[in-house]
Design brief:
- By secondary structure, the protein is an alpha+beta fold.
- It is built from three helices and three strands.
- Helix content is 40%, strand content 24%.
- A hairpin with a 5-residue loop joins strand 1 and strand 2.
């Protein structure tokens, strides 16, 4: 499981798994609005990480970011780290 420490959001941590084909298989948030983050997780699981980044990047809540935007940032960093 990959771990990303969020910045500027109520959630403090995102854990996620990506399969060999670039499909997001699991997303777990620590902290934040439980119901909303469960919904985000369910909606993005099973999607390719490029699609998730496209859909969520730039969504703002406060501080020019959001829990969804932070997931997109985490996935961008994952792609960079893994040369995808």
């Amino acid at each position: 499981m990959n771990t990303y420490k969020t910045k500027g959001t109520c959630s403090t941590l995102i854990q996620f798994d990506v399969d060999k084909d670039g499909i997001l298989t699991e997303v777990k948030y620590t902290g934040g609005c439980r119901g909303n983050l469960q919904a985000v997780s369910r909606l993005v699981e099973g999607k390719h990480i490029d699609e998730v980044i496209f859909l969520l990047k730039g969504i703002e809540c406060r501080g020019n970011t959001s829990c969804a935007d932070q997931l997109a940032t985490a996935l961008e960093q994952y792609k960079e780290k893994n040369n995808l």
